[in-house]
Amino acid sequence: MLDESQVMAAKQVIDRIVANVDTVIQGKHEAVELVVLSLIAKGHVLLEDLPGTGKTTLVSTLAKSVDCGFRRIQFTPDIMPSDVSGFSIYNQKTQDFEFRPGGVMSNLVLADEINRASAKTQSALLEAMEERQVTVDAVTYRLQEPFMVLATQNPIEQFGTYPLPEAQLDRFLIKLSMGYPDFAQEMRVLELGDSAKKAIHPVATAQDVLNVREAAAQVYVSPLVFRYIVEIVTATRDNSEVQVGSSPRGGIALTALARAYALLKGSNYVMPDDVKYLAPYVLSHRIALSHEAKVQGRTAQDVIASIISSIAVPYFDESELAGK
Q: Picking from 56-70, 213-227, 278-292, which range would have the lowest pLDDT averaged per residue?
């Protein structure tokens, strides 16, 4: 188990990255924290909101805060899968085929407006997101670590968008909506202009992120908390308002994010309340609502919230949660 010095060292790295991004993204501290924690939890993030709400700015600022590779893929209806994964081209000088890396061959990858590309192109990300590799012409190429896909998408009712398939949604650790800033925050955005973006500099290295990831993997999760996670996930499959519930990947993702969140709080073990707080972000995009629920105007967030409230938070002893 992690000792106090290891926990505090990991927390300091997370805090530095969050604080750096906060200087640009005004009033969205919770969203910034969740995105940084997803990086620590080896997950990917889907940001869905109206254009101009800071989705792309958040991703680019995170990339500048961590000193590692960054690439942006602008998804459009005419983009090809090879633009994402890469392709082989014949070199007449060497009389052999050479691999030309695609946009996904980097540490942090921004898939901008991902739902404007066809399903064929969207599927090029599936292997990269799950297996952290790409296969081109039967040759497999490992991706650099840390690796993370941060995708933005416009609301599906907007013109020229394609819905993401369930298999791809399931590969995102969390789904967030930025929302409009309040009046004071928007005033601050106008006052800062581009000065905050220009002042951004790296506050952590790729190795720092890998070290924190290693620490997060050692955060203790008691059998009591594991049971609570499984109860929430399985409840999504037995709910009358849900047509398709969460896969086991939802429970795995929730556990990983809860471990990272424990480090942010300066703890070396996961609390049930950590799970309760994070579950809506992890599970809402992993369920499909029934027709009746949609007719009643229910959202996935509403249903997940009702499921969580129906499951009692387990009674616990602090020493049991800490594995003592």
A: 56-70
Q: Measure CA of the first residue to CA of the last residue in the chain; give whole Å.
A: 10
DSSP-derived secondary structure for 231-247:
HHHHHTTS-TTEEE---
As separate numbers, helices (DSSP H) first and strands (DSSP E) second, the chain gives 16, 13
Residue 110, number of CB atoms within 10 A of its CB: 25
DSSP-derived 3-state class of residue 91: strand
Which of 86, 249, 75 has its CA nearest to residue 151?
Answer: 75
Per-residue tokens: 311 = 């499951």
pLDDT-derived band at 226, boundaries 50, 70, 90: very high
Total number of residues shown for the chain: 324
Better-scored residue on pLDDT, 161 or 236 = 236
Residue-averaged pLDDT of the chain: 89
CA dihedral angle for residue 7, residue 12, residue 13, residue 15, rounded to 10 degrees = 120
DSSP E strand boundaries for 183-316: 204-205, 242-244, 288-289
Show the tokens assigned to 320: 């049991």
Strands 133-136 and 139-142: antiparallel
Beta-carbon contacts of residue 1 (< 8 Å; ≥ 6 apart) = 218, 220, 268, 269, 323
Which DSSP category does 170 fall into? T
Q: Would you state the structure tokens that stand for residue 227, as one six-digit string? A: 């049971």
pTM: 0.91
Check if the beta carbon of residue 24 is closer than 8 Å to that of residue 57.
Answer: yes
